[in-house]
Amino acid sequence: MQLLVHLLRHELPGIEILELTPAQYPDVYALLQQNPDSMPTDLIGPLSGEADMEGEAPRKCFLGFYRQHRLCALADLTLGYPQRGVLWIGYFMVDAALRRQGIGSAILSRFIFAATLYGIPSLQLCVDSGDTASRVFWQTIGFEEICSVFGNNVSGETYSCIVMEQQL
Prior knowledge:
The protein has a single domain (2-124), classed as Aminopeptidase, CATH 3.40.630.30. Helix 1 crosses helix 4 (103-118). The longest helix has 16 residues, at 103-118. With 168 residues, it is of the alpha+beta class. The chain is globular, with a radius of gyration of 15 Å. It has helices at residues 2-11, 25-34, 49-55, 103-118, 132-140; strands at residues 16-19, 60-67, 70-79, 86-94, 122-128, 144-152, 158-167.
């Protein structure tokens, strides 16, 4: 995963890419609070990936994308989930104030290129079934719907999402 992050840094020279640590939590919380439609902050806790980062260090990483010292995007990536050869994009969010300016597309196009160089054959992610804008965004950059998933979350609430994939 370190090599993938290195390749990505090379592909995005105007953006500083940091593997998120507790030192960046204030930036993460501020970004999430400015983007309440993207993800409820109570799901993050103290960036709930802390345990994952320690236990899954070679396979999982949380990245912050900074432009001019400002956090402009977040990504949660897991290599080998849900199966070997897949890089799962667990979360990708661009600051609402910067959306529709090409930043998300630029980051993701270079990310896809770096993943191809790294030898990853497939990228997958999940989109809320009711979030048409996100589904259209991912389709625009080459992702296709592969299945739907329904269930109950830990709070007992029903959810419905669409799994999308891009073969590299």
